[in-house]
Design brief:
single chain; 221 residues; alpha/beta; Alpha/beta knot; Trp Operon Repressor, Chain A; 5-stranded parallel beta sheet; two-stranded antiparallel ribbon; 8 helices; 16% strand; elongated; binds adenine
């Protein structure tokens, strides 16, 4: 899988690219690239934004700037690339969308800045508009990292332990419910114990206990 992040701040992704699961994915042939809007902007002085029509505060990312960056990367035909604009007004990101996106060969994550994108970016250039939550960030970079992280950890081999992404919160294995609680040594600490069943060696009982806790956390019985 190739994930391209379009941003004004490629350096923000240096830390992310160094994370173990991202490096594991890279060793497995996957790639995370950053593309700087300023490298292809048709405007003078590396400009990428403009004042909003109709007035109002802040600056808006221009559609011609985003289009130039996409064309610079993909030419006239970006049809094989799933292009996602990160914006607070978009569809809420969740585990289901992460599972869908990991099936793509090529993703483009478009980060906005300032007041966001000219709406034509969302209407004409992107396939989806996605939000990571009902709050406004100062740009799409953190949102792009959240989306990339949730997707990359689903790639086979990214987590090292093949099983760790199968039975975790919101997975199919848990019927979409949050994950059950975990405990580890010591079995007692400051008088705080561990559920007896987990120390019993009764694997069927442990399984039932875990599924039950998971259902409870999901609001079920
Ligand atoms: N850009 C600014 N806020 C955002 C959010 N909540 N989700 C995605 N992109 C954003």
């Amino acid at each position: 899988m190739l994930i391209d992040v379009f941003t004004l701040f490629p350096e923000h992704f240096e830390w992310f690219g160094g994370q173990r699961h991202v490096r594991n994915a890279a060793e497995g042939g996957h790639e995370l690239r950053c593309i700087d809007y300023r490298d292809t902007t048709p405007l003078k002085g590396g400009r990428v934004d403009d004042t909003p029509y109709g007035g109002g505060a802040g600056m808006v990312m221009r559609v011609d700037v985003v289009d130039a960056a996409l064309r610079g990367a993909y030419g006239d035909d970006g049809s094989g690339v799933r292009k996602i604009a990160l914006t607070p007004g978009g569809r809420m990101f969740d585990e289901g969308l992460a599972a869908e996106l990991v099936g793509e060969q090529h993703l483009a994550l478009l980060c906005g800045r300032y007041e966001g994108f000219d709406e034509r970016v969302i209407e004409r250039l992107a396939d989806d508009a996605v939000s990571i939550g009902p709050y406004v960030l100062s740009g799409g970079e953190l949102a792009a990292m959240v989306v990339a992280d949730a997707v990359i950890r689903k790639l086979p081999g990214a987590l090292g332990d093949e099983h760790s992404a199968v039975e975790e919160s919101f997975s199919e294995a848990l019927g979409g419910d949050p994950e059950y609680p975990h405990y580890t040594r010591p079995p007692e600490y400051r008088g705080w114990g561990v559920p007896e069943i987990l120390l019993s060696g009764d694997h069927a009982g442990i399984r039932e206990w875990r599924l039950q806790r998971s259902r409870e956390r999901g609001g079920g019985a």
